[in-house]
Protein backbone atom coordinates (compact mmCIF):
# COMPACT_ATOMS: atom_id res chain seq x y z
CA UNK A 1 0.00 0.00 0.00
CA UNK A 2 2.84 2.36 0.88
CA UNK A 3 4.44 1.70 -2.54
CA UNK A 4 1.18 2.40 -4.37
CA UNK A 5 0.75 5.66 -2.46
CA UNK A 6 4.34 6.69 -3.24
CA UNK A 7 3.90 5.94 -6.95
CA UNK A 8 0.63 7.88 -6.98
CA UNK A 9 2.21 10.92 -5.30
CA UNK A 10 5.21 10.88 -7.65
CA UNK A 11 2.88 10.61 -10.67
CA UNK A 12 0.78 13.52 -9.42
CA UNK A 13 3.89 15.61 -8.76
CA UNK A 14 5.23 14.97 -12.27
CA UNK A 15 1.83 15.81 -13.78
CA UNK A 16 1.57 18.97 -11.69
CA UNK A 17 5.06 20.06 -12.72
CA UNK A 18 4.24 19.48 -16.41
CA UNK A 19 1.03 21.52 -16.04
CA UNK A 20 2.94 24.32 -14.31
CA UNK A 21 5.50 24.32 -17.11
CA UNK A 22 2.80 24.23 -19.79
CA UNK A 23 1.16 27.25 -18.14
CA UNK A 24 4.07 29.38 -19.37
CA UNK A 25 3.23 29.21 -23.05
CA UNK A 26 0.63 30.69 -25.36
CA UNK A 27 -0.05 29.89 -28.99
CA UNK A 28 0.50 32.51 -31.66
CA UNK A 29 -3.25 32.90 -32.09
CA UNK A 30 -3.83 33.29 -28.34
CA UNK A 31 -1.17 35.99 -28.27
CA UNK A 32 -2.65 37.78 -31.26
CA UNK A 33 -6.08 37.74 -29.61
CA UNK A 34 -4.68 39.02 -26.30
CA UNK A 35 -2.85 41.87 -28.03
CA UNK A 36 -6.04 42.79 -29.91
CA UNK A 37 -8.18 42.70 -26.75
CA UNK A 38 -5.77 43.86 -24.03
CA UNK A 39 -2.75 45.36 -25.80
CA UNK A 40 -2.58 48.32 -23.44
CA UNK A 41 -2.40 45.99 -20.41
CA UNK A 42 0.47 43.74 -21.55
CA UNK A 43 3.95 43.94 -23.04
CA UNK A 44 4.69 41.84 -26.14
CA UNK A 45 8.45 41.50 -26.71
CA UNK A 46 10.32 40.01 -29.66
CA UNK A 47 13.49 38.63 -28.05
CA UNK A 48 15.39 37.82 -31.27
CA UNK A 49 18.64 39.48 -32.35
CA UNK A 50 17.65 42.37 -34.67
CA UNK A 51 19.84 41.00 -37.49
CA UNK A 52 17.81 37.76 -37.37
CA UNK A 53 14.60 39.79 -37.57
CA UNK A 54 15.95 41.64 -40.60
CA UNK A 55 16.33 38.37 -42.53
CA UNK A 56 13.30 36.42 -41.24
CA UNK A 57 10.58 39.03 -40.75
CA UNK A 58 8.82 41.04 -38.08
CA UNK A 59 5.37 41.67 -36.73
CA UNK A 60 4.45 45.21 -35.81
CA UNK A 61 2.10 43.68 -33.21
CA UNK A 62 5.06 43.55 -30.77
CA UNK A 63 5.63 46.49 -28.48
CA UNK A 64 9.39 46.25 -28.67
CA UNK A 65 12.34 44.15 -29.80
CA UNK A 66 14.56 43.48 -26.78
CA UNK A 67 17.03 40.68 -27.55
CA UNK A 68 17.49 38.03 -24.89
CA UNK A 69 20.60 36.71 -26.65
CA UNK A 70 22.82 38.66 -29.02
CA UNK A 71 25.12 37.13 -31.62
CA UNK A 72 28.77 37.72 -30.75
CA UNK A 73 30.34 38.18 -34.17
CA UNK A 74 33.83 37.97 -32.64
CA UNK A 75 33.23 34.44 -31.30
CA UNK A 76 32.61 31.88 -34.04
CA UNK A 77 31.88 28.37 -32.75
CA UNK A 78 33.49 26.17 -35.40
CA UNK A 79 32.09 22.93 -33.97
CA UNK A 80 28.53 24.31 -34.25
CA UNK A 81 29.01 26.36 -37.41
CA UNK A 82 27.61 29.55 -35.89
CA UNK A 83 28.42 32.58 -33.78
CA UNK A 84 28.11 32.42 -30.00
CA UNK A 85 24.86 33.79 -28.58
CA UNK A 86 25.41 35.70 -25.33
CA UNK A 87 22.74 36.77 -22.89
CA UNK A 88 21.92 40.46 -23.07
CA UNK A 89 22.98 41.54 -19.55
CA UNK A 90 20.50 44.42 -19.66
CA UNK A 91 17.54 42.29 -20.77
CA UNK A 92 15.53 42.41 -17.52
CA UNK A 93 16.12 46.13 -16.99
CA UNK A 94 15.19 46.89 -20.61
CA UNK A 95 11.96 44.89 -20.26
CA UNK A 96 11.20 46.74 -17.03
CA UNK A 97 11.79 50.08 -18.78
CA UNK A 98 9.46 49.05 -21.64
CA UNK A 99 6.80 48.17 -19.05
CA UNK A 100 7.21 51.59 -17.40
CA UNK A 101 6.87 53.31 -20.78
CA UNK A 102 3.44 51.66 -21.12
CA UNK A 103 2.47 52.49 -17.53
CA UNK A 104 2.81 48.83 -16.50
CA UNK A 105 4.69 47.00 -13.74
CA UNK A 106 6.52 43.68 -13.22
CA UNK A 107 3.14 42.18 -12.26
CA UNK A 108 1.57 42.85 -15.67
CA UNK A 109 1.65 40.26 -18.44
CA UNK A 110 4.86 40.05 -20.49
CA UNK A 111 4.84 37.79 -23.57
CA UNK A 112 8.14 36.87 -25.22
CA UNK A 113 8.63 35.54 -28.74
CA UNK A 114 11.73 34.14 -30.43
CA UNK A 115 12.15 32.22 -33.68
CA UNK A 116 11.06 28.76 -32.48
CA UNK A 117 9.85 29.27 -28.90
CA UNK A 118 12.32 26.94 -27.27
CA UNK A 119 15.82 28.40 -27.46
CA UNK A 120 15.04 31.96 -26.33
CA UNK A 121 11.26 32.33 -25.89
CA UNK A 122 10.86 29.96 -22.98
CA UNK A 123 14.30 30.68 -21.43
CA UNK A 124 13.66 34.44 -21.59
CA UNK A 125 10.30 33.98 -19.83
CA UNK A 126 11.94 31.87 -17.12
CA UNK A 127 14.79 34.39 -16.82
CA UNK A 128 12.35 37.23 -16.17
CA UNK A 129 10.40 35.18 -13.64
CA UNK A 130 13.63 34.39 -11.78
CA UNK A 131 14.19 38.15 -11.53
CA UNK A 132 10.84 38.98 -9.97
CA UNK A 133 8.49 39.41 -12.95
CA UNK A 134 5.33 37.61 -11.90
CA UNK A 135 3.26 37.14 -15.07
CA UNK A 136 5.42 36.03 -18.00
CA UNK A 137 4.57 33.75 -20.92
CA UNK A 138 6.21 32.85 -24.23
CA UNK A 139 4.85 31.94 -27.65
CA UNK A 140 5.15 28.22 -28.27
CA UNK A 141 6.80 27.68 -31.69
CA UNK A 142 7.73 31.39 -31.82
CA UNK A 143 7.76 33.53 -34.92
CA UNK A 144 8.96 31.10 -37.56
CA UNK A 145 7.67 27.78 -36.22
CA UNK A 146 9.00 24.25 -36.39
CA UNK A 147 10.70 22.36 -39.18
CA UNK A 148 8.75 19.89 -41.29
CA UNK A 149 9.53 16.31 -40.25
CA UNK A 150 9.23 14.78 -43.73
CA UNK A 151 8.69 15.49 -47.40
CA UNK A 152 10.42 17.80 -49.87
CA UNK A 153 10.53 20.60 -47.31
CA UNK A 154 11.87 18.48 -44.46
CA UNK A 155 13.68 20.70 -41.96
CA UNK A 156 12.19 23.92 -43.32
CA UNK A 157 10.29 26.00 -40.76
CA UNK A 158 6.86 25.71 -42.37
CA UNK A 159 4.89 24.23 -39.45
CA UNK A 160 3.07 26.36 -36.85
CA UNK A 161 4.49 29.63 -35.43
CA UNK A 162 3.40 33.23 -36.01
CA UNK A 163 4.27 33.33 -39.73
CA UNK A 164 2.71 29.98 -40.59
CA UNK A 165 -0.51 30.75 -38.70
CA UNK A 166 -1.18 33.58 -41.16
CA UNK A 167 -0.86 36.31 -38.53
CA UNK A 168 0.32 39.79 -39.58
CA UNK A 169 4.01 40.11 -40.39
CA UNK A 170 6.27 41.58 -43.03
CA UNK A 171 9.88 42.06 -44.00
CA UNK A 172 9.57 45.75 -43.14
CA UNK A 173 11.02 46.59 -39.74
CA UNK A 174 9.57 49.34 -37.57
CA UNK A 175 12.56 51.51 -36.60
CA UNK A 176 10.71 52.69 -33.48
CA UNK A 177 10.54 49.14 -32.14
CA UNK A 178 13.82 47.52 -33.24
CA UNK A 179 16.61 47.21 -30.67
CA UNK A 180 19.64 49.40 -31.16
CA UNK A 181 22.48 49.27 -28.62
Terminal Cα separation, in Å? 61 Å
Average predicted confidence as pLDDT:
88
Task: Write down the CATH topology.
Answer: Oxidized Rhodanese, domain 1
In which order are the strands of the major sheet placed? 1-7-6-2-3
Biggest sheet overview: 5 strands, parallel
The helix/strand series, from N terminus to C terminus, equals HEHEHEEEHEHEEEH
The CATH architecture designation is: 3-Layer(aba) Sandwich
Shape: globular
Output the CATH homologous superfamily: Rhodanese-like domain
Give the assembly state of these chains: single chain
**Count of discrete domains:** 1
Q: Residue share in helices?
A: 25-40%
CATH class label = Alpha Beta
Strand content: 15-25%
Please tally the β strands and state the result: 9
Structural class: alpha/beta
Signal peptide: 1-20
Pfam families: Rhodanese
Organism: Marinobacter salsuginis
Protein name: Rhodanese domain-containing protein
